[in-house]
């Protein structure tokens, strides 16, 4: 018994630049951000989601092929589509990001010398702002 399931591909709206130089710059930046996102999958101290979303944004302005590939990607596609359509982030991603920011900030308070503790407070303030922003977004 064979199944004749047809694959569904999401077709994005792109806003490509008319300038070849700008398009090439966005293609290259898209790949840089994508590689940083992959590194973020492997390293817990580096975020994945912002870099993948930046890659999608760059490719939407430069390469229909790469953008189409990313939004239909097995692992990143749904996340990118949810962001592009609804500015929505999955609840687990919000929680994971907040936990990682909390651990990273706590490590700064633990590791920085007393005269540099202001850096830890600054990071804590920025991370708090990011967490508030994340939890104000709709859940995907």
UniProtKB/TrEMBL annotation:
It is a multi-pass membrane protein. The chain crosses the membrane at residues 21-43, 91-110, 116-135. It comes from the Bacteria. Keywords: Cell inner membrane, Cell membrane, Membrane, Transmembrane, Transmembrane helix. The keyword Transmembrane applies. GO terms for cellular component: plasma membrane. Pfam families: DUF454. It is found in: Cell inner membrane. PANTHER family: INNER MEMBRANE PROTEIN YBAN. This is Inner membrane protein.
